[in-house]
Write a sequence for this structure.
């Protein structure tokens, strides 16, 4: 296992009503819809693995859990930016599956099915506290931060969270959340569903 590092920005939406109970229960709570469907989108601003540069590439982890996440048997699929070549795709896959160590390694025992890898053009956009991500016909999601009423403003933050992307997450609501990938299907535009975003820095 060799050293690698990636850093950048992340956002996610899921099918849970805001606020998703998975994080504040340390993954022991039952999702609000009974099962959990989530698309975790990450844009690498700077990164490398084994001399392979990953700058500017994005990827999306689509997951489904049939009950509380801690029970395991999760289904996971990976969408990689079509701009990634074969070496870059393999590097990202090794990082995401935990095969190369790092934050996702601890999550690997909870995965029951790796549903495969798809390549699509990924658009990852940020405007202020609004994020939007698309990946071809597979993912189309956006969110808006839940703003603090403090004079300093900014999003309300969830700190010291046991989340693989970051221990500090901004709270958000999905303005729309649609994914149809790896047999995992979700489509909602009520504005009542959960979202998070943050910067991230992973290494191993």
């Amino acid at each position: 296992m060799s050293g690698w590092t990636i850093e950048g920005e992340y956002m996610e939406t899921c099918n849970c009503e805001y606020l998703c109970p998975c994080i504040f229960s340390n993954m022991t709570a039952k999702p609000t819809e009974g099962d959990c469907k989530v698309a975790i989108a990450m844009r690498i601003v700077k990164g490398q693995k084994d001399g392979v540069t990953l700058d500017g590439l994005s990827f999306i982890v689509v997951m489904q859990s049939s009950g509380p996440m801690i029970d395991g048997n999760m289904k996971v699929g990976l969408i990689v930016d079509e701009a990634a070549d074969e070496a870059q795709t393999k590097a990202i896959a090794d990082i995401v599956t935990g095969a190369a160590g790092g934050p996702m390694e601890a999550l690997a025992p909870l995965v029951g099915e790796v549903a495969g890898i798809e390549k699509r053009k990924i658009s990852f956009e940020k405007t202020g506290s609004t994020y939007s991500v698309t990946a071809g016909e597979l993912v189309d999601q956006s969110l808006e931060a839940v703003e603090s009423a403090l004079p300093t403003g900014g999003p309300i933050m969830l700190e010291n969270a046991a989340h693989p992307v970051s221990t500090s997450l901004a709270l958000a609501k999905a303005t729309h959340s649609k994914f149809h990938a790896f047999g995992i299907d979700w489509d909602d535009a009520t504005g009542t569903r959960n979202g998070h975003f943050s910067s991230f820095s992973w290494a191993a």
Observations:
- Residues 5 and 203 are 4 Å apart (CA to CA).
- The domain at 4-203 is CATH 2.40.400 (Acetoacetate decarboxylase-like).
- Helices lie at 21-24, 86-97.
- The mean pLDDT is 97.
